[in-house]
Write a structure and sequence with these properties.
Layout (H helix, E strand, L loop, with lengths): L23 E5 L5 E4 L10 E5 L6 H13 L7 E4 L4 H6 L25 E2 L9 E2 L10 H13 L3 E6 L4 E3 L5 H10 L2 E3 L10 H7 L4 E5 L5 H7 L1 H8 L7
Parallel strand pairs: 3-4, 3-7, 7-10, 8-9
Antiparallel strand pairs: 1-2, 5-6, 8-10
Helix pairs in contact: 1-7
The chain binds zinc ion.
Length: 243
């Protein structure tokens, strides 16, 4: 992969400071922020839904995909892009939303559990920090709105962007997962190795919606804008296999 590969149809660097697409609002966060999605031009089919920062502690996912979105011409967009699925968490710097709910454990799945989901303070620590999975499955406005958006758009596949596990979680062994892996060197895995009750991935699988989880590595945003954003730019232009 070279950064100049699509130089002829990318936005000049001087003009990449701002987003050129006007997002639609698909819901409201618990603290009242708009939940926003950037969509392809009218009439263009949506190949993938891409969403970032369902965990507020993963704002690197927002910056990497925003940089990709700002690198392509608005007319080239072939994905629906949610830059922050959990905007309250991003602003507060918390993994969960404003109610302390882990939004990736709040999806209405057959395995949703009221047990408090654990996570790690740092990757070196045990999973000893507790959040809530919500009072009931799908209770949180950010989850309900994203679920409705995905159902309404009915795109062929979904990419959720996280950090910093450095892998492509690709339970369906998909062409899209291989495409990502070939371009980034990220290892493809069938699961992340610990239970994720009530997760988006399980919800998607139970509804027959192909999805992969893209886990950015433990690198600086500065590095990843150079290495991962061009891959996402190609994805957003519709150059990746559908699933
Ligand atoms: Zn995450």
């Amino acid at each position: 992969m070279t950064s100049g590969q699509h130089e002829h149809d990318t936005v000049p660097r001087a003009e990449r400071g701002v987003l050129r697409t006007t997002p639609d609002t698909y819901g409201t966060s618990r603290n009242g922020l708009p939940l926003q999605v950037h969509l392809p031009p009218d009439g263009a089919a949506i190949r993938h839904v891409v969403f970032c920062a369902i965990h507020g502690t993963e704002p690197d996912s927002t910056v990497i995909v925003s940089s990709a979105l700002r690198s392509i011409l608005p007319g080239q967009l072939r994905c629906a892009v949610v830059l922050a699925a959990n905007p309250d968490g991003v602003l507060m710097g918390t993994r969960g939303n404003a109610a302390g709910v882990e939004l990736n454990r709040n999806w209405p799945t057959s395995d949703w559990s009221a047990e408090q989901p654990p996570h790690r303070w740092t990757l070196e620590d045990p999973q000893d920090v507790r959040l809530s999975s919500g009072p009931e499955p799908g209770s949180e406005p950010e989850v309900g709105a994203l679920r409705d958006l995905i159902e309404r758009l009915d795109a062929p596949s979904i990419v959720s962007v996280h950090s910093p596990l450095a892998c492509v979680d690709d339970p369906g062994d998909s062409k899209l997962g291989r495409w990502f892996s070939e371009r980034t060197g990220l290892e493809r895995m069938a699961d992340v190795g610990y239970p994720t009750l009530g997760s988006f991935g399980t919800w998607a699988r139970e509804r027959g919606r192909p999805s992969i989880t893209y886990e950015l590595p433990r690198e600086s945003i500065n590095e990843m804008v150079g290495t991962h954003s061009p891959v996402f730019a190609a994805l957003l232009r519709g150059e990746a296999p559908i699933d």
